[in-house]
Write a structure and sequence with these properties.
This protein is an alpha/beta fold. It has helices spanning 21-25, 40-54, 67-80, 104-110, 128-145, 157-168, 206-209, 219-222, and strands spanning 10-16, 60-64, 85-88, 150-155, 185-191, 194-200. Helix 3 links the parallel strand 2 and strand 3 (85-88).
Length: 223
């Protein structure tokens, strides 16, 4: 359990899964799976080192139940001596339905509202808004059940964008194209339904690189 200033809420390290071959090839993955890239371990080692530098121990580890997220979470559990990984469907990437395996350039061409309208429901799938609601609801549940713990969550780029947008009060449609690197580490302090502090410990996200988000973030600093 954390004993420093972060004890005022649940501290969450939010991390993206390893880079897959489909990610590298620019194909829609969604609820599907794909083997990792051969050099994925370099990203994992970078993140492991950064987490060790924080000096905190993990009270719980959660992941999406998709293979790429679950295997990534197990890597960190083994490297950091953390607790057993709990995988849950609420942390899955968006369900792209029939668009799974499609080339991303084709999707942008055939679906003009792709990554522009968060309420666009993909054929036999769901919308970004629906994905955001289920993932945020679950993380808020964790904040209530782990009120002073340090929790590692391994999920997906779409989920991470939705979580940042929700807890930092950012306009969601404008956030859908923000880049989430494979060396991203989101550092959240959540007290109930509110984020009282946010930082990035790894490679900066598009939210920061674009200049629209100054870190470390706190509501007081933004008021």
């Amino acid at each position: 359990m954390v004993t420093n200033d972060y004890a005022r809420g649940m501290r969450v390290f939010l991390i993206r899964h390893y880079q897959t071959q489909s990610n590298f090839a620019g194909r829609i993955l969604g609820w599907g799976n794909s083997p990792p890239r051969p050099d994925w371990a370099a990203d994992a080692n970078f993140i492991t080192c950064r987490l060790r530098e924080t000096g905190v121990s993990l009270d719980a580890i959660y992941s999406s139940d998709l293979e790429r997220a679950r295997r990534t979470a197990m890597t960190y559990a083994n490297a950091l001596g953390g607790p057993e990984v709990i995988d849950v469907p609420e942390l899955k990437e968006i369900n792209y339905g029939k668009l799974q395996t499609k080339d991303k350039s084709w999707v942008f061409r055939e679906f003009p509202l792709h990554k522009k309208d968060p309420d666009l429901v993909y054929p036999d799938g769901e919308s970004f808004r629906q994905m955001q609601q289920r993932s945020v609801r679950f993380i808020s549940f964790l904040a209530a059940t782990h009120p002073q713990d340090t929790v590692l969550i391994v999920s997906h780029a779409g989920v991470i964008r939705g979580v940042i947008s929700h807890f930092l009060g950012l306009e969601y449609a404008a956030s859908l194209k923000q880049k989430i690197p494979f060396r991203y580490i989101g550092d959240f302090l959540l007290a109930g339904e509110s984020c009282t502090r946010y930082d990035e410990l790894g490679k900066p996200s598009g939210f920061v690189r674009a200049g629209g988000l100054q870190i470390p973030y706190s509501p007081d600093a933004m008021s």
